[in-house]
Amino acid sequence: MKETRKSTRVYPKDLIDYSARINVNGAYYSGMLGNLSDTGVCVILPENFPKEEGVEVIGIVHYVPLNEKIEFAGKIIWTKNYFFQNKSRVMIGVQFFEKINNTSPYPNFIKDMNETRKDTRVYTKDFIDYSTRIEVGGSYYAGILGNISETGICVILPENFPKEEGLEIRGTVHHVALDETIQFTGKTVWTDDYLMENKSRVMIGARFSEKIELPDYLFMLSVDLDE
């Protein structure tokens, strides 16, 4: 799954209002935000950024319209080469030493990114080894995993899935190759129409009732991408 993490597709144009700056051993690198969660961040950086896992970094994520900043410290857990705008770059995933607290300015970031999520592109082939099953009011729906974090999940479901926010759901995420299953409960926080393979579907975002502990093969697969 480490290789799957490194091949995750990130589209910084979805986060155009965000910038990032990383400090490694006293050297500063300006970058583009790939994604952000309360436990980690994905950043696209210049080609000369040192590609070393385990290196400790400090950094800032800047939300330009409101001139708000989040400071963080953590360590690099993966790196990969990335080609963007006809230039070679380096993409990194950073795991924070401490979870970002729900204090200002963090809620403003989350509010804005929640809106961004509804238009986010989901590439399910990155999760080809996973299947999902959602239960609502005694009815079961087989789905395709869009993304998952410790606090929520995005699932692509059949067209007849009820498009209602606030629905209480139960579900499972199954790793087919390893035959391992994660169970969860939660509520839908957004729904949207979604066209996939020329078929109409329903995409949902659900927030878990309780934070779950992700196994290593899922942790920071896409740093809370497209929840």
Number of helices: 2
Strand order of the largest sheet: 1-2-3-6-5-4
Gap between N and C termini, in Å? Answer: 19 Å
Largest sheet: 6 strands, antiparallel, barrel
What gyration radius follows from the Cα positions, in whole Å? 18 Å
DSSP summary, beta strand count: 12
Order of helices and strands: HEEEEEEHEEEEEE
Give the helix/strand layout.
Blueprint (H helix, E strand, L loop, with lengths): L1 H5 L11 E7 L2 E10 L3 E7 L9 E8 L4 E17 L2 E10 L9 H12 L12 E7 L2 E10 L3 E7 L9 E8 L4 E17 L2 E10 L19
Antiparallel strand pairs: 1-2, 1-4, 2-3, 3-6, 4-5, 5-6, 7-8, 7-10, 8-9, 9-12, 10-11, 11-12
Characterize this entry briefly.
This protein is mainly beta and 227 residues long. The chain is built from two helices and twelve strands; from the N terminus they run αββββββαββββββ. The strands form two sheets. Strands 1-2-3-6-5-4 form a six-stranded antiparallel β-barrel. It has a six-stranded antiparallel barrel with strand order 7-8-9-12-11-10.
What does the model show?
It is a single chain. The protein is mainly beta and 227 residues long. The chain has helices at 2-6, 106-117; strands at residues 18-24, 27-36, 40-46, 56-63, 68-84, 87-96, 130-136, 139-148, 152-158, 168-175, 180-196, 199-208. It is built from two helices and twelve strands. The chain has a six-stranded antiparallel barrel. The radius of gyration is 18 Å and the shape is elongated. It starts with a helix and ends in a 19-residue tail after the last strand.
